[in-house]
Amino acid sequence: MLGGGELADMFSCAATPPPDWEPVFALEGRQMIWAGTTPVDISEAEAGVVDLGADSGPAMRDLVARTRPGPFWPRTHELGCHLGIRENGRLVAMAGERLRPPGWTEISAVCTAPEARGRGHSALLIRALAARIIGRGERPFLHVAETNTGAIALYERLGFRTRTQVTFRGFRTP
């Protein structure tokens, strides 16, 4: 499944990786789950929210490289719906779906370009994704680094609560 030299993510996993996997990072964080009511119905089109398809992959990877929200591999955008906000044709904010255990959907890759911060883009995208997830009868959840206090405060304002502490671990495969 993983080729040589690729990065494998493990978090809060009791399993020990194979001995020839090289540890790359360990980071404390938390898993947060939706504990609020159904998000306010917003008009995504009026707010400038757009669906990001496969053709947006390069722009998504560029934004991730500039903002570093967490793991986002070349095909991550294929795991679920990704929404974005463009300004002057350039992707400046996005959020998407990744893990989908039964009854749940993870919101991930929440990021806003430095020049577009402070305008409520992340909150809008999270609310739009949460509305879609809840509309499917599922509950949203997300993961966040413990050091990202700004994101934690935003997620709490939007109705997310900490479910558990996690440790994110990355390993390089031989």
UniProtKB/TrEMBL annotation:
Query: Which positions fall inside the N-acetyltransferase domain?
Result: 40-174
Work out whether the entry's keyword set contains Transferase: yes
Keywords from the named record: Acyltransferase, Transferase
Q: Return the Gene3D superfamilies for the record.
A: 3.40.630.30
Q: Which InterPro entries match?
A: Acyl_CoA_acyltransferase, GCN5-like_dom, GNAT_dom, YpeA/RimI_acetyltransf
Q: Which GO terms describe its molecular function?
A: acyltransferase activity, transferring groups other than amino-acyl groups
- Transmembrane ranges, per UniProt, are none
Please report the name of this protein according to its UniProt entry: N-acetyltransferase domain-containing protein
The record lists the organism as Rhodococcus opacus (strain B4)
In the record, what lineage is assigned to the organism producing the protein?
A: Bacteria, Bacillati, Actinomycetota, Actinomycetes, Mycobacteriales
